[in-house]
Every structure is written in structure tokens, then in C-alpha cells.
histidine kinase (Pseudosporangium ferrugineum), 409 residues
Amino acid sequence: MTVYATRREQMRLRPTLRLRLTLLNGILLVGAGAILVLLAWLLVGDALHPADELQGGTQVVLSDGSRLDALTWQTQLVDRASQELLVKGLIALFAIGIIGIAGAYAVAGRALRPLHHVTATARRLGEETLDQRIRYSGADDEVAELARTFDAMLDRLAGAFESQKRFVANASHELRTPLAVMRTEIDVTLSDDEADVAEYRRMAKVVRNASERANGLVDALLVLARSEAQSGRRLVRKVPADLATSVYNALSAVKAEAERLKLDVTTDLQAANVVGDPSLLDRLAGNLIENAIRYNHLMGKLWLRTANVDGQARLVVGNTGYEVDPGDVPGLFEPFRRGGWERTGSRGSGLGLSIVRAVCDAHGGTVSAIAQPGGGLEVTVSLPAADTTPVVAASATVPQTKGLGVAPG
């Protein structure tokens, strides 16, 4: 018996799985044996009737020379055989039951040994021991399937922990950079006894720019956390929205930057109605368009399309610009990854496409990207249209596909 403590610290006894299996096997074995003994006892009573073939009044001579009526002799014979069968059958049943229960207990223990291994491994697991695995090498049965499933779960947990560590390290690095810039500027300016008002103004501008960068990073982290918390279609707010409207608003916000770079902007904005969180959808469109402008070049191209296609609201944002290796495209959707730019001194927080992916996941959609042959990227977002059945759960995938997306002339 194993003792388990409840949440109220009450103690109660419960049989272990091994003991329950043993008791079940024992009950089945003893029950089957008892039925066989009973059947044998009944058959003996029905089969032993030799005197029925003799004439009435026939007597039999026993081994001691005494004579006995055939019917009386038959009754004594049946009673003696039945009693002997019952006694020896019960003794055999008891012996077989003891041996069967002991064997079942041993077999159950051997069969459940991998489960104990799983339990022991789970108890040892910690942040520093996620590399441990069960690696079951026994028969290919349900226990082996459980062990493989547990190992696969540990692989996913290890990947998640590693990803979290990288995320924290990158976020710390990104926040440390503007803080270091501000502290350096302040220390240098204050240590200069001959600093004038112009120098303090220059220092103030540098500090303001660095603080804006840090504030933008914090805002992006909050949006990313909010989007990931609503993944799998668990949106807090679900109202009708149009991706074309989100694109129009985002494009209006960056119009001045697009004109500064003299970008050739081509739009084909048809109604793309969805049901979701308008603020997240606006951020999705804004991040895609901001990235398309930020990583473009002078007199480059930017094309935007929205439409309903096969029950999906689709948004396409493409741009010319830096050449991107097709193998690096999926990594661009990871936090703090920038195409063609190193972290230090680069523009943006590196969270734009991560937020896009999280918003797509929250709305039960997908996002994919295609590296353009001459440089640049074309990103396609597909969300369930408003007139379709909402997806209960989905994941934003980033397939490595060789697309045919070509920038409009």
C-alpha cells in the first residue's frame, strides 16, 4: 500500500498500480480455477453411476469380502470421489493462486519498471538536467510509446528553455545598449568642466534618442507578450476588422519616410474582413510596412495587396532592399533577428516579425516569407475570413518555400 497526501494534508491509503494489477490477475486466476473445480465436481457427480446399468437388488463384493447393495455402493463412491476431488482441487487452487499472484506481482513490477524510470527522471529534472532522457530499449509496447513521448516532451521543453534563455539574453543586450549610451554621454559631459549649453543640448538629444529606443523595445516586448498570451485563437477581443484599413492606416503613418526614400509604392487594397483584435492587426500591418521601408533602399519598391482568397483574408507586403538568403528567412521570425544587420548599432528592435507571427497565431492564421531574387522580402499573411468558422487552434508557420512572388512593375 502506498500513502498519498492530499492538499488538505489528510493521509489516506491507496493501492499502487502494481498491487492493483496483481490483485486483478489473482482474482481472475482464482476465479477461473474455482469454476473449473466446480465443473469437475459436478461432472464427477453426474458421471459416476455404474449401478444404474445393473438389475435391482444386485450386490457387489468389496475387497474385504463384504457384500453391499449396488446402489448404496454407488452413492458412497460418488460421495467419496466428490469429497476427494473437492479437497484436492481446493488445495491445488490455493497453490496455483499463490504461485500465480506471486508471478503476476513480479511480472507487473517488471512491466512497470520503465514507469518508475519515468518518475525518477521527472523528479531529477531541473533547469540543469534537461539533457537527461529515458531512452527505453525494451519491447515496442505501450510503455515504450510512453517513454518515447516523454523523451519528445523533454526535447520540446529543453528547446523552449534554451529559446527563453536566448530571448532574455538578447533582450538584456538590447536594453543595455541604450542605457550604456545614456550613461556614457552623461558621464563624459559632466566630467567636462568647459562644457557649454550647446554640449549639454547635444548630450540631451543623444539621451532622448537612446531613451526612445529603450522605450520602443519595451513597448515591442509588451506587444509580443500580449500576442503570445492570446495564441491559439484565445483572443480577448473579437470584433469585425478589415486588413485593408489596417494597411491604409499604417501606410499613412510612414508616408513621410517612404517619400524621403523616394519609394515606388504600389497598392491593391481590396476588402479583407476578419474577426479579431483591431489593435493587434494594426500592429501586424504596421510592423510589416515599417520593416519593408526600414530595410529598403533609395528609390526602391514597396507593394501592398489585400484580398479574400478561398475563405482566407490575405495580406501581402513586399519590398526591394537587402539580399536575404532563403535559408535565413525562417529565422527572421525569431526575436531579435534582423535581415542583413547585426544587433549592435542596427535599426529597429528585431521584434517586428516576431510580433507578426504571434499576432497571426493569436488569430488562427499563418505567415510565410519569400526572399526576392534581386533582394528584399515578400511576406504573406493569411487569416480566417470573417465569414468562415473560427479556427480553434493554429500555429503560425514559416515554411521554407521557393515562391513565385514578383514585385509589380
